Amino acid sequence: MSDKKLNVLFICTGNSARSILAEGLMNHLGGGRFQAYSAGSHPKGAVHPLAIETLHTLHVGGSGFRSKSWDEFSQDGQPVMDFVITVCDKAAGEVCPVWPGQPITAHWGLPDPAAVEGSEEVRKRAFMGTALALKRRLELMLELPLEKLDRLAIQKQVREIGTQASTQVLILCTHNSARSVLAEAMLNQLARVMGKDVRAHSAGSAPSGRISPFALQVLADAGIATSGLRSKSWDEFVGPDKPAMRIVITVCDSAAQEVCPHWPGSPVKVHWGYPDPSNAPGSDEDRRIAFELTRQAMAYRMMQLLMLPLETMSNADLQTTLDIISRS
pLDDT averaged over the chain? Predict the structure, then answer.
């Protein structure tokens, strides 16, 4: 790719929060190498005030941000895009206009900070978390030696950036059928609700190959999707091409005592042990209640984890804090 200034268009449905943050950050970080724009498939017509406030907090200048339709950029006379990047799942699933110049496309999906409910401080944290996640992805893009890569290589690299959450968490138990599955599902659900760029995975040292029906039942009862869950070996997460884990959590004592593989990323490790609800005595209803209580206990710790400023914490501080949470 040549050394000319490259145009990049960030797209979200409403063009009021995520795509605005990406536009501002890229123009700030790009050092004149990129010219960023943003648009929406169904623009709201107004930029979210917390998006502007967050950019100002990060010392990102600029004015003239507005919520506008992506149709503006498909017309003659508009800048020819080198990259078009969607930052929300809904826009990624829609049929885009035909962009002049056949740009490289990628999807960097992030939870919508504008959908986060709670106090003003909670909503500000959601916007800042989204901005920092975008900032990290943009920095990875800016580090690519674009002038040395062909089009297919650039497309592959830019798309892979979108699959890398800022914080990857691996949750382990021996059989990966109950506790670790509950923790994975709860952490991913809460991350979406709280607008956090966190991705949870689970695995087992000796996976059973099946998930407890009680685990699936209590998750479904809580409104949490279970279609993508499966019992799998921790070996799936070993190797140079695997996601770099920031945190590895063991949730059963036997897994905590085993010698773990070498995880990419040299993650922080912590043990949050829970009794196995599969061993609860009594009727099926008694076991279902045990699973539900375990799910609720895990949710409490996962919320504590997501409240941390993960994007800015050192591993040493993170280790100390997670150890404190383990005693709560």
Answer: 89
Catalytic residue among 88, 173, 252, 260: 88
pLDDT category of residue 294 using cuts at 50, 70 and 90: very high
Residue 113 one-letter amino acid: P
| 173: annotated active-site residue | no
Residue appearing with tokens 């035909």: 98
Architecture of domain 167-326: 3-Layer(aba) Sandwich (3.40)
- In total, the chain counts a number of residues equal to 328
Please, which residues bridge with residue 247 across strands?
A: 169, 268
Most confident listed range (50-59, 73-82, 189-198)? 50-59
The secondary structure of the chain in percent helix, strand, coil, rounded to multiples of 5, reads: 45, 15, 45
pLDDT at position 82? 95
Residue 283 pLDDT > 70, yes or no? yes
What single-letter amino acid sits at 260?
C
H-helix or E-strand spanning residue 284: helix 284-306
- pLDDT exceeds cutoff 90 at 105: yes
Which has the closest alpha carbon to 90: 112, 59, 61? 112
The dotted CATH code for 6-161 is 3.40.50.2300
Q: Would you say 97 and 2 are in contact if contact means Cβ atoms under 8 Å apart? A: no
Whether residue 93 is predicted with pLDDT greater than 80 in this model: the reply is no
Task: Parse the chain into domains and list their residue ranges.
Answer: 6-161, 167-326
- Is it the case that residue 91 has pLDDT exceeding 70? no
Q: How many CB atoms lie within 10 A of CB 297?
A: 16
Q: Given this chain, do its domains 6-161 and 167-326 carry the same CATH topology?
A: yes
* Average pLDDT of span 153-173: 86
Q: Is the dihedral of CA 1, 85, 97, 35 positive or negative?
A: negative
Active site residue 260: no
**pTM for the whole structure:** 0.64
Q: What is the 3-state secondary structure (H, E, C) of 23-54?
A: HHHHHHHCCCCEEEEEEECCCCCCCCHHHHHH
- Local structure of 126: helix, strand or coil: helix
